Amino acid sequence: MLKKTMHKFMDEQLTETTAIKQHFTIDQESLEQLKPHMSEEKYQETLKNLKLKEQNLLRNTELVIQKLHANEEAMIRKEMDKKHMQEQVELRKTMAESQAKLRM
């Protein structure tokens, strides 16, 4: 279950990252087309801001996905621990009953 969860979130992160990069590639191409109509300073500033926004969006997306993954993994671990505890109780109960029968 944990491996499936990890793969699920890795795939989701890859999909989101790819989409963000494609979006900003389109924006950068549009900026390149507008370059002749802009001063060099304005172009460089706009390009810098565009790259900064892309990196911030990628980082925020990564953080959100990591948080969701951690929450889901914690929930799965909690369920696994709960099942393990139940199995331990059943095992101890069975052992106690078998020892009681042996004493009789």
Q: Spans with pLDDT under 50 lasting ≥5 residues?
A: none
How many structural domains? 1
In one word, what is the shape?
A: rod-shaped
Quickly count the helices.
2
Mean pLDDT: 90
Radius of gyration: 27 Å
| Strand-residue proportion | under 5%
Q: How would you describe this structure to a colleague?
A:
With 104 residues, the chain is mainly α. The protein has helices at 2-34, 40-103. Helix 1 runs antiparallel to helix 2.
What is this structure, in a nutshell?
By secondary structure, this protein is mainly α. It has one domain (2-103).
SSE map:
Elements: H1 2-34, H2 40-103
Index terms:
rod-shaped, 104 residues, mainly alpha, 2 helices
